[in-house]
Design brief:
The protein has two domains: 23-339 and 473-509, Alkaline Phosphatase, subunit A (3-Layer(aba) Sandwich); 353-470, Gyrase A, domain 2 (2-Layer Sandwich), CATH 3.30.1360. It starts with a helix and ends in an 18-residue tail after the last helix. Helix content is 35%, strand content 20%. It has 20 helices and 21 strands.
Length: 527
């Protein structure tokens, strides 16, 4: 009897262990991408996180503390294109959210919406992505879906032929397809999910701190800087604007909705159910709509992350139940980090200011007219790119390089500009300064301007719609975490480029690298 019991327990133990043996290749790859998240935040708030969310993947996986997007643009599409293609903007071509097309004399939007298309797409990305290569390898059998808030974010995650891109409609509160629904039918389960009207339930709630507000970083160290009468308690009710769900979607309940939809998607679409790898990308956010600055250690930002930690913990638990973590690879990272506001820089006596690119371009045009005569010498300006009028340059009979150098010297006198370089001089430069490399990696000869500029650290740029953007030097302290499948535990402090992610995943999946890949597989991760 005892022998039979021992044999039974041995067989049961062996069977249970065999069931948890990792698959030869991941059956499911899940990208968890968080808007505005830094390694500094993960470290500072780790004692507030549970053991099952961020801390689980950091302590149980490979945690790269110093990942970066070395190229110059802060446009999310540029970074995402690098993340999924393994190449830089100089190669994949997505240098910014828009650029000036000299041949057609028009402004081209990166997402393709300057054409008759009603839907943004990744058609202006010139390189393939790991998703494209996976689709090619298995003749479309791999399922690819991206879920999040912003269409302009999601289009760069699904390659050139994704199956589904779902974003939340801020007017209806429902998930919608970024596609012609006459061609791509909305699944019935999505209609059922939308029919629950979860946001209408969440709108009836208030958002306040998860725990003792006095223990939040901002209240502990910056309470004197808080505006008088500041209160962390917000109504999430719908308003009468065109986007009535904005408040609730930019609160922790927005992340909750994305997590709920992602779980429903995995279950209803049988993601990770066979040996052909499926890919799921999830867009979350650490930035709330309640505060204008939304700095890294603001109480609202901290609370967003504490609550996002709970959603990630639930997501991992369900993925383990449905697919098995031995079959699932989770890649967690950030697309951009929070930056210090002008007020924070000024309070710390750091260099800061507000640069107006359109105004600088107008002043340059006046300067060139004073020297070379009337005309529109500056054709366009956008995102640190100055486009000159090549026809006027030819008509002037002055060597174009002379005018370019004069223009760069003039711009160097404008307050807030750290570097202004003619593209020809930049490409000929052998400097290994990070600022030079950043400009080079973001320069595409058919899409970039004639003169490229970088602002001084701490400076913001005023945009035509009166919003501001920090043209920071580099996102050099972004988290990159691999967890699950065959990933070993390690804490890596050496700098790595986000261009290395695509070839690493391609190596795991045993598929070709993207066709313009410039990154290298992370050797620490390879089995």
């Amino acid at each position: 009897m005892w022998r039979l019991l021992i044999v039974f327990l041995f067989v049961s133990s062996f069977y249970s262990h065999a069931q948890r043996i990792a698959s030869p290749k991941p059956k499911l790859v899940v990208f968890i991408l968080v808007d505005e998240l830094s390694t500094d935040q993960l470290i500072a708030f780790r004692d507030k996180f549970s053991d099952d969310g961020f801390n689980r993947i950091i302590s149980g996986g490979s945690f790269y503390r110093h990942a970066s997007f070395p190229a110059g643009s802060v446009y999310a599409g540029s970074s995402l294109s690098t993340f999924y293609s393994g190449s830089y903007a100089a190669t994949h071509g997505v240098i910014s959210d828009k650029w000036y097309d000299r041949l057609r004399s028009i402004e081209v939007h990166a997402d393709g919406l300057e054409t008759d298309s009603a839907y943004p797409s990744a058609k202006n990305m010139l390189a393939s992505t790991l998703v494209d290569e996976l689709k090619w390898m298995y003749n479309g059998a791999s399922k690819v879906t991206s879920i999040g808030f912003d269409k302009d974010f999601l289009i760069w995650t699904g390659g050139h032929s994704p199956d589904y891109l779902y974003n939340v409609n801020f007017a209806t509160g429902h998930f919608q397809l970024n596609a012609d629904t006459a061609v791509v039918a909305m699944p019935e389960w999505v209609e059922d999910f939308n029919g629950k009207n979860l946001l209408d339930v969440y709108c009836e709630r208030q958002w306040g701190p998860k725990s003792d507000l006095n223990e939040y970083h901002q209240l502990k160290y910056y309470s004197k800087e808080l505006p008088e009468g500041h209160s962390f308690l917000y109504s999430l009710k719908k308003d009468k604007s065109d986007t009535p769900y904005n408040a609730v979607l930019r609160s922790p309940y927005g992340n909750k909705l994305v997590r709920d939809f992602a779980v429903a998607h995995v279950i209803n679409e049988d993601f990770g159910a066979d040996d052909v790898t499926d890919i799921l990308t999830l867009q979350f956010t650490a930035r709330s709509a309640m505060r204008k600055s939304a700095s890294a250690f603001e109480a609202e930002t901290e609370d967003m992350l504490i609550r996002l930690d709970e959603e990630i913990a639930d997501l991992i638990r369900i993925l383990d139940e449905e697919v098995g973590m031995e079959n699932t690879l989770i890649v967690t990272s950030a697309i951009g980090a929070p930056v210090r506001s002008l007020e924070e820089n000024q309070r710390g006596q750091l260099s800061s200011g507000l640069f107006n690119g359109k105004k600088a371009a107008s002043l340059l045009n006046l300067y060139l007219m004073a020297i070379y005569g009337q005309g529109k010498w500056v054709k366009a300006y956008h995102d640190g790119q100055v486009y000159l009028n090549h026809e006027l340059l030819e008509q002037s009979k002055v060597p174009a390089q002379n005018i370019l150098e004069q223009s760069a010297k003039f711009l160097m006198q404008v307050e807030g500009i750290a570097y202004a370089m003619p593209a020809t001089e930049l490409m000929a430069s052998t400097s290994d300064l990070a600022a030079m490399q950043s400009l080079k990696l973001n320069y595409h000869p058919k899409r970039s301007g004639d003169i490229l500029i970088r602002l001084q650290p701490g400076w913001n740029e005023l945009l035509p719609d009166n919003s501001t953007v920090n043209r920071h030097w580099t996102d050099a302290r972004l988290p990159l975490v691999f967890y699950g499948w065959k990933v070993d535990r390690q804490d890596v402090r050496k700098p790595v480029s986000m261009a290395d992610v695509a070839p690493t995943i391609s190596s795991f999946l045993e598929i070709p690298f993207p066709n313009a890949c410039e990154g290298e597989p992370l050797e620490d991760l390879l089995p």
